[in-house]
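Journal club prep, notes for RB
We'll compare a predicted complex against what the paper describes. Inputs for the 4'-deoxy-4'-aminopyridoxal-5'-phosphate case:
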Amino acid sequence: MSAPTRSHLSDRAAGVRQSAVRDVFDIAMDPSLVSLAGGNPWLSGLPLEELGAAAARLVAQEGTTSLQYGPGQGTERMRQAACTVMAADGLPGADPDLVVVTPGSQAAIDTACRAFANPGDVVVVEDPTFVGALTSFTTWQLDAVATPTDEHGLVPAALDATLTRLRSEGRRVAFLYTIPSFANPSGLLLPEDRRDEVAEMCARHDVLIVEDNPYGQIAFDGAPLAPIAARHRERTVYLGTMSKIFSPGVRVGWALVPAALKREFYLCAESAFIHASTTSQMLATAFVEEFDWQGHVREVTGLYRARARALQTAVDEHWRPGFEYTAPRGGFFLWGRLPPGVDTVELMRAGIEAGAVFVPGAAFTPVEGMHSTLRLAYSFVDEDTLVEGVRRLAPVVQAAVESAERRRPTPSPLSRKAP
Ligand code: PMP
């Protein structure tokens, strides 16, 4: 029998590309490179010995439960623990009965597509947005349509215009996918009044919101801003995760779903993965119930703040002029922009030769074409290494900026403004 060919692939699988980010993650494993690529949380501050004892107990003493199938919606205690975490996110009083536990929030995004979208539907996104969500939208054969943002994130009036246009074109909008707090990759924080305006706009157009909030508690100055779901629960599917405040390896996240949609959401989740790992849910529950988890979040937030500041100082010193960025106020990422004409995919290749790697902006946008943006992750690398990475990239950045300037057409005398 001959080997299978691409004709055996479904249309949706044939349309999936390995993302530039995944390519970069493979390369970023090379220990000789400084990686400013992956948004990994820093785990060394976790109480590993005590967590190990808790894990041993879960198997040795509670193995007949922890190693067994569990409820499809997630264990009751994990759903309670999710409500405890959401209260700290600024979303108090969530009903554990409306929580569906998933293997990370990536699986919740995928379940949202499964539950709410038909092939050919539109998902409205901010631009740039999370690459894992874009990949999910592609596999579900959805059109990610970007709506304009400014330095504060989504622009409500522009969202109104986008939704009006899509309606006039007869498109079905499955949902708005948004990351209002310290977004990946932009780092932007949507102000409180805009959160309400965005929800009101979506209500006016009868569009569901999928609010993804892995970074809300990683706030550098002050308490987290209340999520959109806090005041607009009926319109919003809220996604949370243990990945950034505890561990991405346990693969535990969840969705808080409006009551009217919960049953179908959870059946869609069950059809994909039955349920999130029982052992992992029990370990994540132990972290919330038995450990000073908020102390851990405070500690890592302080660390990420210091790393973000060190990175900013380094790019100010080594990449200016030419490199513009938004100073992060939380989260894991610094998003920056080089002059038009710089292709950051090319820059990334040259950067790898120079010994450091970042993710080019093209990975995070549904808009084709050349991009001069890039994402630097500061969450996983200590301050000296961050500075070293920026120093290694400095000559490459400078060469790319100079070459773009040389290629830029000089304005003709006729188009020059009179003095
Ligand atoms: N959403 C966003 C915005 C993210 O940045 C990430 C992880 N990088 C995820 C979802 C997926 O996280 P999880 O580990 O919970 O699946």
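Talking point for the session: The radius of gyration is 22 Å.
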